C-alpha cells in the first residue's frame, strides 16, 4: 500500500458475493417447502423514482430466487388507506417480509406507517423496536444501510462471523477509534451502536460538531453519513484509516451536468486512506444486498 493509492472497497463485488450466499440460502429454504418472498407497498405518485426502484428491486429479487409482490396504492391515498394495507400484510400468515417504498404522499409521516410493520417482518429494520434491539444486542432486523457499513468494515478488518449480538472469534475493532459523522435515526445512530458492539471506541459527530475535523483525524475507521457533498477532506483523515462514504448527493458540475457524489472528497482522501469506499458503487449495492439478506433471515425464522 502506497501513501497515494488507497484500496477501493468494491461494493459491487461484495454485493455479488452476498447475493450468491443469499441465493443458496433461498434455495435451501425452498427445498424444505418454505416460501421466500418480499411484500412491498408503493403509493403511486408523479415521481417515477420509487416506481423505477421497485422495478429494479423485483429484478434483483428474481435473480436470487425471492418472490416479489408489489402492492400498489393509488396516488392521493390517505394515511388510513396506507395503514390498512400495511397492517393487513403485517398480520397475514402468508407474508414474512414487508417494506414500504418512500417517499410517501406529502403530510404522511413514514415513521407512523413503518411502525405498523411487525418487528419480525420489518426487513428494512426501521421499526423503533428493531432499532432499539440494536442497543441491547438482541438478534433483530437492523437498518440495511447500517448493516452494509458494518459489512464493509468487516471486509477490511474481519473476518468475523457475526454482525451483532452473538459471540465472535475475536473483537472486530477492539482498540480502534471509529468516528461516525452524521447521527440520523436509521443510519448514523445505528452505525455508531453497531460499531460499539464490535468494541470500538466510537465518537458520534454531525456537521455542527465543534472541532469535528480533529475528531475525524483521530479515526481508524471513519464513516461519513451527513449528506453534505465533499464534507470530509484530506486534512480530516488519518493516514492509513478506513473510510466508508454513505453520502448520496446530486450536484451540478461547472459544465451544467448532474452527478452523484458522496460526503468524502474521494480523490483527495484516497491519497491518505488505506481503504475507501466509492460513490457510486460502494455502500449502495451492499445496502440492497442486506435487504435481501434480511428477507431470507425473516423466512428462516
Q: Into how many domains do the coordinates divide? A: 2
Percent helix range: 25-40%
Structural class: alpha/beta
The largest sheet has its strands arranged as 1-11-8-7-5-6
Largest sheet: 6 strands, parallel
Which fold name is given in CATH as the topology of the largest domain?
Answer: Rossmann fold
CATH architecture of the largest domain: 3-Layer(aba) Sandwich
Mean of pLDDT: 91
- Total strands: the figure is 11
Oligomer: single chain
Uncertain spans: 160-169
Q: Please indicate the percent range of residues in DSSP E strands (runs of 2 or more).
A: 15-25%
Question: Could you walk me through the main structural features you see in this protein, from its secondary elements to its overall organization?
Answer:
There is one protein chain. This protein has 301 residues and is of the alpha/beta class. It folds into two domains: 33-119, Rossmann fold (3-Layer(aba) Sandwich), CATH 3.40.50; 143-283, NAD(P)-binding Rossmann-like Domain (Rossmann fold). The protein has ten helices and eleven strands. It has helices at 11-31, 49-64, 79-91, 110-114, 128-136, 144-157, 188-196, 212-217, 266-269, 283-300; strands at 7-8, 37-43, 67-73, 98-100, 177-181, 201-205, 221-224, 242-245, 249-252, 258-261, 275-276. A six-stranded parallel sheet has the order 1-11-8-7-5-6. A three-stranded parallel sheet has the order 3-2-4, sandwiched between helices. Helix 2 (49-64) links the parallel strand 2 and strand 3 (67-73). Helix 6 packs across helix 10 (283-300). The model is unreliable at 160-169 (pLDDT under 50).
Amino acid at each position: 500500500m502506497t501513501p497515494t493509492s488507497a484500496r477501493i472497497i468494491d461494493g459491487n463485488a461484495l454485493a455479488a458475493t452476498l447475493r450468491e450466499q443469499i441465493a443458496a440460502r433461498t434455495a435451501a429454504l425452498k427445498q424444505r417447502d418454505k416460501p421466500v418472498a418480499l411484500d412491498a407497498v408503493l403509493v403511486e405518485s408523479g415521481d417515477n423514482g420509487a416506481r423505477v426502484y421497485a422495478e429494479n428491486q423485483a429484478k434483483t429479487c428474481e435473480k436470487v430466487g425471492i418472490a416479489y409482490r408489489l402492492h400498489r396504492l393509488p396516488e392521493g391515498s390517505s394515511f388510513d388507506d396506507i395503514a390498512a394495507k400495511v397492517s393487513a400484510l403485517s398480520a397475514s400468515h402468508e407474508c414474512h417480509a414487508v417494506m414500504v417504498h418512500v417517499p410517501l404522499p406529502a403530510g404522511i409521516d413514514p415513521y407512523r406507517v413503518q411502525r405498523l410493520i411487525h418487528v419480525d417482518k420489518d426487513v428494512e429494520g426501521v421499526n423503533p423496536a428493531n432499532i432499539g434491539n440494536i442497543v441491547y444486542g438482541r438478534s433483530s432486523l437492523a437498518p440495511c444501510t447500517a448493516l452494509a457499513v458494518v459489512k464493509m468494515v468487516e471486509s477490511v478488518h474481519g473476518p468475523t462471523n457475526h454482525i451483532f449480538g452473538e459471540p465472535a472469534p475475536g473483537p472486530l475493532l477492539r482498540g480502534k477509534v471509529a468516528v461516525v459523522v452524521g447521527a440520523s435515526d436509521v443510519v448514523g445512530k445505528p452505525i455508531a451502536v453497531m460499531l460499539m458492539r464490535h468494541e470500538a471506541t466510537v465518537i458520534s459527530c454531525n456537521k455542527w460538531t465543534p472541532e469535528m475535523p480533529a475528531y475525524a483525524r483521530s479515526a481508524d475507521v471513519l464513516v461519513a453519513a451527513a449528506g453534505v457533498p465533499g464534507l470530509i477532506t484530506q486534512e480530516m483523515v488519518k493516514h492509513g484509516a478506513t473510510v466508508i462514504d454513505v453520502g448520496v448527493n446530486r450536484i451540478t458540475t461547472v459544465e451544467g451536468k448532474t452527478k452523484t457524489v458522496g460526503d468524502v472528497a474521494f480523490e483527495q482522501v484516497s491519497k491518505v486512506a488505506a481503504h475507501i469506499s466509492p460513490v457510486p458503487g460502494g455502500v449502495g449495492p451492499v445496502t440492497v444486498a442486506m435487504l435481501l439478506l434480511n428477507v431470507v433471515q425473516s423466512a428462516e425464522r
